[in-house]
Structure formats: C-alpha cells, structure tokens
Amino acid sequence: MVAKYYAKISGTGRYLPDKILNNHDLEKIVDTSDEWIKQRTGMWERHIASEDQASSDLAYNAAIKAIKAANLRTKDIDMIVVATISPDHPFPSTACILMKKLGLKNIPAFDLSAGCTGWIYAMDMARQYIENGIAKNVLTIGVEIVSKITNWKDRNTCVLFGDGAGAAIVSRAETKDISRIIDSEITADGTYYEYLIQPAGGSRNPASTNTIKENKHTVEMQGNKIFKLAIKSMYNACETVLKRNDLDVKSIHWLITHQANLRIIEALGKKLKIDSNKVIVNIEKYANTSSATIPIALDEAIRARKIRSGDLVLMASFGAGLTSGSILIRV
Amino acid sequence: MDVTAKVKEIIVDELGVDENEVTMDANFIEDLGADSLDTVELIMKFEEEFDIDIEDEEAEKLTTVGKAIEFLKEKLN
Questions:
Q1: What residues have CB less than 8 Å from B28, skipping those under 6 apart?
Q2: Do A29 and A80 fall within a single domain?
Q3: Residue A2 falls within a domain, yes or no?
Q4: Which of A43, A122, A216, A265 could form a disulfide with A287 if both were Cys (CB 3.0 to 4.6 A apart)?
Q5: A225 at interface of B, judged by CB pairs closer than 8 A
Q6: Per residue in A282-326, pLDDT tens?
Q7: How far is A68 from chain B (nearest CA, A)?
Q8: CB-based contact, B5 to chain A, within 8 Å
C-alpha cells in the first residue's frame, strides 16, 4: 500500500514513580549483592509504584506530558494504544481506563500484548492508522508495574525489573516536516513462548489457591536462553530496517534498544558495529520497565536535548512471545 | 583452519584470561571465571567465527575448553 500521509512523533512524555529501590535495598530482600547485579545486568536502581498506583495512573502522567509536548489539546487525540503486560485488570483494557481519566470518549482505545516489544508494536500500528488517513493523533504508551507481578523470592528475576511509563504521540506529518517515522518492522516466534511467561491467571491455569501458593502469578524467565535470542532478534530487526532503507549503520545518530540487560545492549551494539557513544543507555536508573523502556529513554534523551531535530534514531526491542521489532525515525 | 588455535584465541579474547590457563581440561565457569552470560557470549562468538548454529541443548554440554574444541571440530567436518 502506498502511504497517503506520513507519520511523525509529535511529542513524548514519561513518568517514573517516586519510590526508588537500589541494589543495596534488594540485598535485604533476597540473597543477592550490589556487585552481582551490576556485573550481570548494569542495573543500579529502579523505580517502584506505590500500593495505590495502577498502570493507568502511570500512563496518565506520561500521556499528559506527551500531549503538552506535542502542543495538542487532549481532545485532539483520536486513538489510544496501550502496550502493557501489567494492566490494571485482565479486562477492561487499561486504555479504556486511561481514556476516562483523560476525559475522552468515542475513539478507539485498546491494549496490546507483545511483552517488552509492546511499544514498538503500538508505534507500528499507530503509523499504519496515520499513513492511511484514518487517524490524526494516536496516543501510544508503554506502561508497566512489573513490581506487582514479580516473585520477590526469586533472586534471578526480582532484581531485574522496574516500574514506569513512556508515551509518544504519533501525528500526521505536514509536507514541510522533516520529522517522520521512516520505517518499522515487527515480528514474533512463538516457538519460545514458555521462556518468558506469567503462568497463571489466564484460561490455561486459572487463579486458584494453589496457583497463589506456588507463586504462579508472577514473571518466570529463562534468562540465559533469552539472552542469545534477544541479541539475534534485535540485530535482525535493525538490519532489516537499515537494508530496506538503504542506510549504513554509520548514518544512524542514536540507537535506543530495550533496556533489559547492559550486556545485551553492548553485545548488540558491537554486532551492529555502531559507535558506543551513539547507544543510549539508562538501565542503571530504571532497570527493565518492559514495554516502557524505549519511550522513557526516547523522552529522556529528547528533553535533555541529546537527541535533536533531524537526528536519525533507530529503536529496537524484543520480549515475551518471543516478539521483536524495530522502528526508524527522523526526529 | 587450525580449530584448536582459533578456539583458544577466542576464549583468551572473550574471557580476558591468560593463554596458559586455557588448557583442555579448563572449565569455563570454575577455572576460567566465566559467569553464565559469559558462556552464552562465548557460544555466540563461536557461531559467528565459524559461521555455524549451536543449539541450546548442545551449548549446555560445552563446559570445558576440550569439549568445545571437540564439538566444533566435529561440527565443521
């Protein structure tokens, strides 16, 4: 299909809950050490939502900032896509709860489940709706409160995650705009769906006293196996988009990857042969906020004026499913 | 291609160990100080350098330098 219009990111926002849990705090909860966590993951601290905060609350704060940054009024938003693995409720969607908080009605709003790749999936969808002329301003959000689906007795997983929300508005680009979503690519391979999973609470293992006793409502992950797949799938997603647009990696100004593990980020950077100064990392502050890592990092880098107008930014992620994807934008 | 020499070179480079330590019996984790992610990175380096795919089940068995060399020689034949 030939696009009728071009899409661009018109504004971004992020929200991190106030409470910070550092590696030393974790030493008091599970048998781990600051050194072990830093060495294996590059994480120093992570933000944790309060008891009374749900994902839609985090999403609302990020959304308001993104709408303001885009110079839009809330009522200009004509579609909401929320990517999350930790929704307020199994149903209705967090997007509909967010919609009520924003005072919006009568527009499409839904959640999508693509693990940590969720926001890239949301952006890919938003792009299609803008390019074919159906929507003008799509609110995309990656939001997670992983801390509430974490097994705080499992030292292999509980140290890895943090809570947060990142938002981006995808708008129809004017002809004069240099800012544009150039390309995006999403894919999945269900072969490995069990590698990263919240086993209970769905129709396979409905909630019961047993599933609660066995801690089956929390994240289970086979980290070592995912490590390799993560690097390969993000590499492929990046290469696909670069090749399709006849671009050399040297022309990319910034690479933002999913922040799951510093060693994955470094290994991917090496494989792509991209200058390490161009790789944006904030994992030390926020740990893995799942679908929120990339929009948080993007917003942070834009507001810090690190990413500037006209820069080419390549973003790539992978996650439960296993899903993967990438998106290339000119800011 | 001298597989043994190449494998040893990769191990020295990836794990930052001395060449003398890389004996056939040396266990990556116990003797060469690798952590679980180092071993995955090492496997990926083998895949890249020798242009092969190593399945997780195969990779799990490659615990020592000798086992890795033996496996790679067989795979490359």
A1: B11, B15, B34, B38, B39, B42, B63, B64, B65
A2: yes
A3: no
A4: A43
A5: yes
A6: 999 999 999 999 999 999 999 999 999 999 999 999 999 999 999
A7: 42
A8: no
Contacts of A33 (CB under 8 A, 6+ apart): A23, A27
Per-residue confidence in pLDDT tens, chain B, 77 aa? 789 999 999 999 999 999 999 999 999 999 999 988 899 999 999 999 999 999 988 999 999 999 999 999 999 88
Q: Is residue A1 part of a domain?
A: no
Q: Which of A116, A158, A238, A261 is catalytic?
A: A116
> Could you give the number of structural domains in chain A?
2
CA distance B38 to chain A (A): 9
Q: Which amino acid is at A297?
A: A
CATH superfamily of B3-76: ACP-like (1.10.1200.10)
Q: Looking at beta carbons, which residues of chain A come within 8 Å of B41?
A: 263, 267
Contacts of B56 in chain A (CB under 8 A): 225, 228
In the listed set A142, A172, A202, which residue is the last one of a domain according to the structure?
A: A172
Bond from prior residue into A199 cis (ω within 30 degrees of 0): no
Q: Which CATH number goes with the domain that contains A138?
A: 3.40.47.10
Q: Are B27 and B62 in contact (CB under 8 A)?
A: no
B53 reaches A (C-beta below 8 A): no
**CA dist., res. A203 & res. A252, Å (int):** 44
Residues of A in contact with B54 (CB under 8 A): none
Domain that holds residue A126: 7-172
Query: Residue A313 is which amino acid?
Result: V
What are the chain B neighbours of A36 within 8 Å (beta carbons)? none
Query: Residues of B with catalytic annotation?
Result: 35
Domain segments of chain B as ranges: 3-76
Name the residue among B35, B41, B56 with its Cβ closest to that of A40.
Answer: B35
Which of A148, A172, A196 finishes a domain? A172
Q: Is A116 one of the annotated active-site residues of the chain?
A: yes
